[in-house]
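Anyone have tokens for TIGAR bisphosphatase? Sequence:
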Amino acid sequence: IFVGQGVDEPLSATGFRQADAAGLFLSNVKFTHVFSSDLLRAKQTAAGILGKNRFCKDLEIKYDARLRERKYGVAEGRPLADLKAMAKDAGEQCPSFTPPGGETLDEVRERARDFFQFLCQLAVELEQKGHDKPGAPGRSSGTSGEQFVFPWANHCSEAEPISESSGSSTLLDANILVVSHGAYMRNWIGYFVSDLHCTLPANLSKSQLSSVSPNTGVSHFIIKLENGSLLNPKITCVCLNQDSHL
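Reply: yep, here.
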């Protein structure tokens, strides 16, 4: 059933279990910021993840409408078969078809681009404010590197988020958790790859790149902004749609 934006249902019992599993999986990752779609299922997922975290239980979740699922218009609340039939009648392929009242893929990508640029600006402002001062939340400040252990580093990409100086990821200006939706994230990742030339894991297939993430799948990207510049961010995909916690 397509829920999109217009059907704002809560998580099912399975969804809550998946959110708890994702929270346990990420429990040793110290986030500096959390952003979530303002749709209920994403809100509940974000809360479930933070509820299992050792360091960030009290971190404020900021809700942003730019992270909502793709809008499917008249297809929302109806089975996938109905959407396929609409696409066939229009002579189009289902993934790229826009039902009446829905969002085009370009419109979804524009939302993703706008939100990503907002995140980059946030990171630059943190750096400019001297985010590495003692006690600053985004830096290690003498705390254990355990707080920055990423659980998928051993079985995903060879690229790991390790600082050049300390041997652990303690020099990140921001370590941001974003909770969103499958079709939206597929478009966002497409923007990373086609527009920003994101570096992908060597073992990633084209089918994996174009697939929709499983519920609570985890994708991890390292973003480097050279000299605080918002132009030409260097993006490395550490893992895509990781689901070993499920």
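Residues 135-147, 157-170 have pLDDT under 50 and may be disordered.
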